[in-house]
Amino acid sequence: MYKILRSFFFLLSPEKAHYFTMRLFRLVSFFPFVKNQFQFEVDPTVIDGLSYKNKVGLAAGFDKDGKFLNQLHTLNFGFIEVGTVTPRPQGGNPKPRLFRLKKDRALINRMGFNNEGLKALKNRLEVFRKKERDCDMLIGINIGKNKTTPNENAVNDYVKCYEGLYSLADFFIVNVSSPNTPNLRELQNKDELKKILSALITLREKQEKWKPLYLKIAPDLSFEQLDEIIELQNEIAFEGIVATNTSIDRSLLTKSNKKLVQEIGAGGISGSVVLEVSNSFVKHIRSKSDMTIIGVGGIDDSTSGQSKLDAGANLIEIYTGFVFAGPGLIKDLGQL
User: Fewer CB in 10 Å around end: N or C, the chain?
Assistant: First the structure.
């Protein structure tokens, strides 16, 4: 059924298809038989003091502003990441900025942290939390910096998002690895990371309730850079790593027309083509640390999902695989 629907959705531009699909699902999700299609039960998994009803999450970028929380809950995700959120609203990069590469089952995006800002997300989360007090879908908040904030002041943006949304999150993810905000990836060096993460951990110590903190990294780092991040985790004890974000390595696209890829231009690659490199990062981290790893990148069926768990991930996330394989993927992965 989804393949038929997908052929229609793919007639639309990727960004229009995204919002059209979720708004359509918002309408049909009111019917009880729809929710029943996505229900399954497995033993919960406890990670860093949080109980996950299943190990399948939705990666950041899909619901940047918390507009589809009820629909994602209906789909039976164990957890989701909302965001990336920045202190101030920003429009992101000019359109078109999201592209499908069907032959590679991949996407290229250069969205640029388009979001309505901290205040708008806070308002939506407050409404959702009041309505769904017993929601069993955990909510992580992915935080970033505004494009106009210079790197030397980046820590202030992360602190604003962290403080402003602390009471509404189950956990936080620090995003310094998107390729679509100029110079953002420079914050992945050890000294800059230490400033940001230390500031957030200091703030956490003042809160009544402790909440896990994770770092999202790029798959384009060298293993030497990755080792520095692993060493940093030993120093300041954030809980783990989300591995990995999108890649800028065009050599991963082996099936798509090279001229088309060149015409698309800049942006991060996601989808099945990043599975191997993402898994190699998960394996490397696991070989050197027992920290929590949330594995993301290239998961589009149960085999690729199992490979991520076998590599050492504690939890897994999907995005592009969700677009190509459809909502049935959640149930397939959740029962691994």
Answer: N
Question: Domain 2-334 in CATH: superfamily?
Answer: Aldolase class I (3.20.20.70)
Q: Which residues are the active-site residues? A: 178
Report pLDDT for 9.
85
Distance (Å, whole) CA 160 – CA 285: 29
pLDDT at 134: 78
* pLDDT of 32 over the 80 cut: no
Q: 10-24 in b/e burial notation, b at 16+ Cβ within 10 A?
A: eeeebbebbeebbee
Write down the domain spans for the chain. 2-334
Q: How far is CA 82 from CA 43, 79, 249, 289, 314, in A?
A: 25, 10, 26, 27, 20
Instruction: Give the integer Cα–Cα distance in Å for 175 and 188.
Output: 9
- Name the helix (H) or strand (E) containing 182: none
Q: Which two tokens stand for residue 258?
A: 């090279």
Q: At 279, phi and psi to the nearest 5?
A: -65, -35
Q: Are 161 and 85 in contact (CB under 8 A)?
A: yes
pLDDT digits (tens, 9 = 90+) for 114-154: 999 999 999 999 999 998 877 999 999 999 999 999 999 99
Measured in whole angstroms, the distance separating CA 227 from the mean position of its chain's CA atoms is 22
Give the integer Cα–Cα distance in Å for 52 and 46: 6
Instruction: Tell me what pLDDT residue 75 has.
Output: 93
